[in-house]
Amino acid sequence: MIFHLVEPRAWEQAMERGFLAPRSLREEGFVHCSTEDQILESASKHFEGQDELIVLEIPPKRVKEILRWEPARGGELFPHLYGKISLDMVENTRMIFRLPDGNWEWD
Prior knowledge:
CATH architecture: Alpha-Beta Barrel
CATH class: Alpha Beta
Radius of gyration: 13 Å
Number of helices: 3
Strand content: 35-45%
Distance between the termini: 18 Å
Number of strands: 9
Helix content: 10-25%
Largest sheet: 4 strands, antiparallel
Number of domains: 1
Shape: globular
CATH topology: ADP-ribosylation fold
């Protein structure tokens, strides 16, 4: 499973449109994703000021045509999607919440 973090408002808009096309897709050409081991660190690094996020759970087989594993932080491989995330690619959604100490916790 790969994971994509999204703010609740952006996910509501995606559900209305039928797809999610984050700013990174326009600016960098791909959508940032993470593995389960990387997701909480990614939330801390990229979502300062947010208290809750929606985690999209995406099976790699549903995105195999647009999925690439590429080095990022310290050479660690991260999943990147070279295209929009359509709603049918998402198997499940979960929430994570920021704790008072700044760390994130799964719902």
